[in-house]
Amino acid sequence: MNGARPVPAQPGPAARHERLGEQRLRALVEAGELTGLPGDGRPFARGDLEGNDSTWAAFRLMRNNKVLPAWSQERIDIDAELDRLRSRCRGHRAWLDARVARLWTLPADRMVEAARVTAREDGRFLAELESAVRDLDRRIDGYNALVPAASLSLLPVSAAGLLASVS
C-alpha cells in the first residue's frame, strides 16, 4: 500500500437518526422516565403470531398501513351489504305496517284498490330482495372460497330469514 489511510465513510441520514434516537432513549432511561410504564420489563406482545418472525412482520406492515387481505375486505363488504338489506327490510316492514293501518281507515270502496296496490308493491319489494339475496349469496360463495379457515366461512342468506330478523 502507499501509506494512505482510508477515509472513514460519512454516516448517512439513517445512521444519524438512529444515533439521535439512541441518545434520546438513553437520556430518558437515565432520567427514569421509562420506568414504571405498563408492561415494564416484559417483551412486546406479538399476538398469536409468536415465533413466526416473517409472518409477524408482514402482519404488522399490513396492519400499520391499513392493508387487508382480499377475503377480509370482502367480508367487510358482505357485512355492509347485509346491513343495507336489513335496513331496507326494516323500512319496508314499517311501510307495510303503516299501509295496513291506513287500509282500515279507508272507506270500503277504496279499501280493495288500496289493498291491491299494497300487495303489488310488497311483491315488487320481495322480488328485488330475492334478487339482491341471490347476488349476495354469490359473493358469499366467492368469499368462502377465499377464506383461509373453514371457521371463517359464512352461511348463505335467505330473503325470508332477512325479513324474519327484522320483525
Give a short overview.
This protein has helices at 13-30, 53-64, 70-103, 108-146, 159-165. With 167 residues, the chain is an all-alpha fold.
How would you describe this protein?
The structure is a single chain. The protein has five helices and no strands. It is mostly helical and 167 residues long. The mean pLDDT is 83.
Structural classification: mainly alpha
Determine the fraction of residues in helical runs and give it as a percent range.
55-70%
How much β-strand is present in the residues? under 5%
Low-confidence stretches are: none
Cα separation of the termini: 91 Å
What's the number of helices? 5
Q: State Rg.
A: 31 Å
Whole-number average pLDDT? 83
Overall shape: it is: elongated
Number of strands: 0
The biggest sheet amounts to:
none
Q: What is the H/E string? A: HHHHH
